[in-house]
Amino acid sequence: MELTSYEAKDLFQWLTDKEEILVLDVRNEQDFNRFQVESPHPFEMNNVSYYDFMEIEDESVAKVPKGKPVRIVCAKEGSAKYVGEILVKHGFDDVRYLAGGIKTWGNLLVPKTVREGDDYSLYQFIRPGKASCSYGICSGGEMMVLDPSRNVDFYIDFAKSKNCTITKTFESHLQADYISGSRQIAEKTGATFYGGIDFEGTKAGHTLVADGEIHSFSNGGPEVKIMLTPGHTPGSFTIIVDNTYMLSGDTVFIQSIGRPDLGGKAEDWAVLLFNTLQQVAKLDDSLLVLPGHYMDWSEADEDLIFCLTFRQVKDRNKDVFSMTDVNEFVKYIKDNMREQPPEYALIRLANGNMEQYDIEKQEELDLGKNECAATAYAKAQAEKR
To answer: Active site includes 164?
Structure first.
């Protein structure tokens, strides 16, 4: 049998389709525990180090059950090819390795159609490796994007596939958990890059947004309204599309709210967030919330779209939305605080264009799930790793 490769999008499709495969991750245990492939559905995954295959080949091969197609994952590709050749030599029938390594899984974007109509269409771009969501709104040959990742060619190519040109790109806040793509999209397409006060004093090249500001398309389309929602960061904002969709950034999640301690001013920012949540709670319960992150795939619907009514979101987060005392809320935040990943400080510098990193360094910084939620659930998840 000939050893062949596969792409990250293939792996996502196999896992989504519940195909009977074995994912064999041959990175070291520390890297595996930090960041690994996750799926909407249960699947079999083994972690056997590449070094073990080098040093104790027979024992390592024995840890890989036969009878299922084997899909190997490693850091950069070479180790997976090496292990794949060993498995083929030992009689495994269907073995393939991930082209480009785990970083391609980390950069994968899966487009989902939230709404498609003659007047406008709305898309959610799920990034499984980061548990994050970015968005695109298309109308009349134009496209606006929100919170794009550094995989900027994906957004540009997607816009072209819809016969659109990207005209505006928004950053709902200065991201700390991943390197954002708005600045690069603006450079490549001529789109205007919009951001909040988080970007003041940086070299990002943004245009400052204001509360209540309306953005529109050249030929009809929906009203895109800015609502300042400080708390996760002082410059965080939410976008309301067509008085129907609430693109909430990192302010409100389906299963949580955005943590306000990433800037090292937990108490001050928690007060901001408390006041914001008091205001946000007055919005229409029928608004459809489209979050910037998710905790796990259980939050997605049957079409694997992350979207719930605001009423449902408030019900899921009733412990937070029921708080009426700011001191109680600040205590809640402090009780759920945990150390932020050290990479976050460097990512903020990159997103403000205060530091420039080479591609390899960007890949290193950008790998791993987000730590943006302010809940005990998120703390428990972190403790598992």
So the answer is: no
